[in-house]
User: Fold these one by one.
Assistant:
Number 1:
Amino acid sequence: MAPRFYNTLTGRIEPFEPLEPGHARIYSCGPTVYDRAHVGNFRTFVWEDLLRRFLKFRGYRVTQVMNVTDVDDRTIRAAIESGMTLEEVTRPVEAQFFEDWKTLGLEPMEHHPRATEHVDTMIALVRRLEERGLTYERDGSVYFAISRSPEYGRLARLDPEGARAAGRVEGDEEYSKEDPRDFVLWKGGERGEESVAVWDSPWGLGRPGWHLECSAMSMEYLGESFDIHTGGVDNIFPHHTNEMAQSEGATGRPLARYWLHAEHLLVDGGKMSKSLGNYYTIPDLLDRGYRPSAIRYLLLSAHYRTQLNFTLPGLNTAERALERLAEFGRRLLDQVAGEPSPSPGVEGGSHPIAILADQARAAFRDAMDEDLSASDALAAIFTFVREANRELDAAPGGPRAGEVEAALAVLQDFDAVFGVLSLRETEVSPDDPAVRAWVEGRIAARDEARAARDYERADAIRREVEERGFRLEDTPDGTRWKATTSGLPT
């Protein structure tokens, strides 16, 4: 049975049937590199990594493209205000993005094109739209005429007559349009941007519109029609709506067969805001002592089409869940080291832990097949861990041959998709100066609390340290510490 995904375009969960059997081609809207991405942005990026990993786990070859938006209103404004070139503004932010990407264990995609390197392709796309009579030019700018596109807005379920906010949403108020619904394809004219972002075109000097960028790059790398287009729900309108209209207007073909969108991230039950003190980048969370694997786990713990409430206590819960999985992995490896009892003539698959492993693998796959139901998939894995631990406790001579290997294979299959245990293996080192500084700082705070006889606070600090994956040992020479590791082979 094929995986099934909720298609925003149709409003239904549908079997995944790629255009080319066995090959999934995906376009994912990438970052706009004017400022460092925050944890809300990474909710979508980490989910897209889950989608990618799961399709590979199910045997598909994946070709995925994620653009880098390095020219738009925000990047230009940042360059003008700082007195730097566009590249001087965007390249460091792009580097930070991919640093955070790697920190959270996201796989590299096949293509990460920059918008500024594909302007010729964008100009060619506008010319195709001109030839089809879907544009008009005014004062050096070129617009898409929504009134000439009868199916405009179907992705967002908009009546074209009701889409009059499109121009205002994307900040095109200063452009002169025939209809306020229309959106700009090529931004021309004298606008004070000539020093940082300008290209020659058939309509004069100017630059591409944001929507145009994704259409041009997705079709250049994936073809005029591809399988899956992803992004956050905030992309549905106007960005993906306009992207669909101009792409399909130029080609006469569907741009993507499946449109998948992730819901918003809440922080402490509300919108993330610097003024509220709940605005987090990945380095912010690392500085607080949280592990990348816990951040990744929490971001993946809820279904992608439901809002996720991201909290610092939630990260502690994620850390405990990961430690439970890691402890199970260690226990299994200890059984391997102890040479589990053989059972001559009997395959491991006929024994309790192996049967549980088969059931867990099927439940995990079924959950992920049904629109990437991560919470149900996690429930299947933790049910397996609980029941397998019970069997290990009850087996007087240890597990039989094949059972440990079957159990380890379940963890390895799980991690091939979720990517949290292998990430955990790489992240904790007593030699890491940041790790050492944080743990030793908490030990010093605990010592102060104990000296002041504030044992409740001292115990709370100890629990905090242990929740982050470090074990404290009080000795006559002071408190020693060490990091716990999962021990799961990768």
Number 2:
Amino acid sequence: MIRDKKIQRILIAVLVFIVIFQCVNLYFDLKHYGAAKHEYDSIKEQFVNEITTESDSGLDYPGLEINMSKLREMNNDFTGWLYFPYLSISYPVVKEKEIDEYMHKTFDGSYNKAGCLYEDILSDAGFCGRHDIIFGHNMKDGSMFGSLKTLDGSKSSFMTGDNAKLYVYTDDKVFEYEVFAYYITSSGSGAYSVVGSDSEYDDFISFIKRNNAITLPSDIDFSKRESILTLSTCSGRSGGDGRFVIHSVKKNTWDRQ
């Protein structure tokens, strides 16, 4: 009887410890989320003016007025601004100099679990590689690349109209991409292929087609081997190797006005 009570007290103590540990983790997670949100909201307020309709801007693309020079003064690794209207993604992008350099570092260099959207070390800083990749965290509050998971299982409206279009703004160009594939994969899979030749490009597209969770849009043509931009985030349990990727192909390029 005494032994049973001791075991019971130990179990209760363990459960109390687990609850306290989870609460502390949640507190610090929320603190990080709040700090990151404040930082990126402040960046957008200071350096980005969104004119979201073509009729207002007089342009063929969403008219974001972005102070590139000020952003580069803030972080010399800055390469461009990613804008994905359908998923409300609008963030600066940096290019890592070391692997996972920005995994837990925000745009201003602060340590934070939210990190920053970053191009992998092998991608082209000008977004003109055969295959460029942007990584971002799957944040619980939907920030960064947290909204990508809403496509898993598909939203019927996603592939209609301009919903599948995303944009990258650089110093002198605006690139328009169209999403043509997304699926769950694993870290190190063919979704992250380094593409350096025509044959590697064709093999990469074949891999995507085999794994694609949606029907390939009829207007997508890979004969010119236009640049592929992949957005990648975590999927499944925290710390696992599950990944959710979105592949898009460059459709238009404009000089920034």
Number 3:
Amino acid sequence: MTSKPAKKARANPIEKTPTKNADERYRAPALDKGLDILELLAQQPQGLTRAEIVKEMDRSASEIYRMLERLVARQYVMRSLSGDRYALSLKLFALANRHPPLNRMINQALPVMDEFARIAEQSCHLGVYDRGNVLITAQINSPRGWSFSLQRGARVGLLDTASGHVLLAFSEADDLQRMRAEHTALDGEVPITEAKLQAELDAIRTRGYLERDSQQSYGVVDISFPILGPDHCALAALTCPYIRRIDTHVGPDLQQARALLGQAAHALSLTQGAAR
């Protein structure tokens, strides 16, 4: 009686790469290839030839050809009339504008903000740059009922608030200059010298967030983190006006609230380089 040969054990792809993180475990090479092409063409308003795309991406001509043909078929990329150049179509623009970007950000932020408020027992708000100052686009109150809050739709100063300073600190130099030029002082705005502002922005960049006594209200400590885009610039500022309870209730302290707010901002950011 002959024995059957033992079955060869199937390799476990995760076991073969035990040190890989989640991004590497769940790779989708074809999808990555298509996204790489879209990102490359987004930087080339005049488009590129197939040979130029192959050279820029350092891939074989056959795999680039197949991917380009699929992107053309799905209308994400258009081919020139002469057939030798490829450029982005308006499809991505149309998809993005089906839901305004700010509304998408708010919808994504609200559950995260609500979770922060529940655990930290503090309020928080989302601020974005708007016409020279900061617009409060979302607000969540503490479920405990004890909190300091700003109304959604309120406009606060660019040069004297935590949100404003974080937005300035995490902006490109050209955008920072434009924001400063567009700024108009709001009622009650606290003046700041140029030297002090630059020192404050440098400190925020180094630390990754802002934490200081409020310049608008006694007994409030402002904590603010940037919500970063892929370019590591601030899309918005997530801010907690922390107030300390002095009765017998024991809730999360300032350090715990700061850590929770940093985690929330990191979860909403579009880059792994977000402040934590």
Number 4:
Amino acid sequence: MSLMSDYENARAELVDACHKVYEKGFVTAYDGNLSARLDSERILITPSGKCKGEIEAADLLEIDYRGNLVGGRGKVSTEAKIHLLAYTKRKDIDAVIHCHPVYSTAFATAGEGFTRGVFPEVILALGKVPLCKYGTPSTEELPNSMLPYIEFSWAMLFENHGAITFGKNIKGAYYRMEKLEQSAKTLYIARTLGREKNLPLLKVKQLYNIAESTYGIKIDPRNRVD
């Protein structure tokens, strides 16, 4: 981003997303971290040890692609590694949000991702939501757990940990997190009523055809639900 207005807009949008994930209960206390790609050298990211509901623009940090602090005052989160992996592996990702939403994290704790077609809008917006093998936070295990899926996934669950979503912009990453948690909550309720009903594969294929022919949306075959 070369214009100051774009830079300030990115900061404002990231702060807004921080407040939203806290208000929605996707994070508590100091949990979670959010970031946005600024340019080929810098990433804007939330600091460690700061409640997302209290984040202000002045709190945001700038780091390089090696995780070094290059702007702002504060401690860089040890989970910056998962953001850096996304940005270095995917040029189409410009925002990353990592939270601990209750229902999504419950499924992650139960050892279950979302890989089957249940909700049409989720199939098209998220695709598969794989479960990443447990990795200890602050170690290389956590970003390494993303490697099997990072090239195509827009949302993942971390086993016994939480969730992460990606976007071409901050709002896109936030809306994916919101949609992920809503679908997890709905699926949980459906199971209390008995079970969810998966869409027939033929109907899922029909959705993909409509998305591509009508809206020009091409979904990576690796990210298509079963």
